[in-house]
Amino acid sequence: MRPVTVVGAGLAGSEAAWQVAQRGVPVILCEMRPERMTPAHETDLFAELVCSNSLKSMLLTSAHGVLKHELRLLGSLILRCAGEHAVPAGQALAVDRARFAEAVTQAVSEHPLIEVRRGEVTEIPEGPAIVASGPLTSDALAGEIARLTGSERLYFYDALSPIVAADSIDETVAFRQSRYDKGEADYINCPFDREQYEAFYAALMAAETTLHADYDPGELFEGCLPIEIIAGRGIDGPRFGPMKPKGLTDPRTGRMPWAVVQLRAENREGTMWNLVGFQTSLTYPEQRRVFRMIPGLERAEFLRLGAVHRNTYINAPTQLRDTWQHRERADLFFAGQITGVEGYVESVASGLVAGINAARLVLGQEPLAMPEQSVIGALARHITTADPAGFQPMNSNFGLLPEPPSEKRLRKRERRERQAELAIEAIERLVAGELSAKS
Prior knowledge:
31% of the residues lie in helices and 16% in strands. The chain is an alpha/beta fold. It folds into 2 domains: 4-158 and 310-432, FAD/NAD(P)-binding domain (3-Layer(bba) Sandwich), CATH 3.50.50.60; 163-305, Elongation Factor Tu (Ef-tu), domain 3 (Beta Barrel), CATH 2.40.30. Helix 1 (11-22) links the parallel strand 1 and strand 2. The longest helix has 21 residues, at 412-432.
């Protein structure tokens, strides 16, 4: 039986290798550390956490909590090791990072069907393979991926704007309109008067940026500059850039606002809205504080916060199927942050599904797409069907899930509780049916 080659032993690669081997298919797991280290890693352990030791909420009222439940149902090695080496963190799942990584390394290394090979991989492997090389993919391998996908479809920096939940926007203040009323009213506009804008500008300029903002502004496109960099050019920088009010009329005053923040729908259902032009390296607490000064976003629920940092990832909508297979090469899978998922557990989820499907392919079975009602399935659907022109990495959130059927209008909490129930039921049915025999 031909083995599956897995490139990278981070969270996604370790999970992928485990899932392949658990289905009776041999694995060659390639990890370049310690022969070649990255700027972020300190050890040669698998699944080393290089930032926070938190895997976020365990509550089923959180999409992250639902995703963890789905992964446990599907037999995730990473979630099992995380549970065994958890440390107190309230309602979140946090781990002793050293013991957690040691446990994953031991489990994977001791599996009889997994052969670990240390050393840099500089070419995409032939035959069944999973590329899970992470956001710090080596230059040589990144070059090969660029040749496969097209260099214009490989990105080296995240430049992310925050995303807010639709039902947390105050539309008694914000209004829907496109500039000069051209086309449909596709944007939600948050209007500032002069006093509000100057207070916002002062807060933005004084806000703390993250120590992990390891980007060079010279390497970013002008249209992707962080909002604080634009603001640093002068008080009118944002007002003549992403916050320009031209062509818009505030219905409360009948006049053009002094400045405006535009929100654009992030998904077809209109449950998630992106702050246009607000990519930022502000710390997460500062983003919540400063961006809630935007009129209409005083009670904003942030589904994703902004970021600017080194992160190699492909334009998944042009490259991947929802089975995590490459569109042109069926025996090649991608998993982890290189696919455009954002977050530890999201990376695990992609690795788990890629591993299941790579094994199924070797065994002569059809690859599976996870149910759209599940967080795993909804995440895969989003990154493979999003607009390629504006594709950015995404984490798990309830805005990705389809609206639950109901004869009455559900309140937010009721809707999310029902979405969580449907997600878990969908995975339970899958496990009882398609995966019951560990096929």
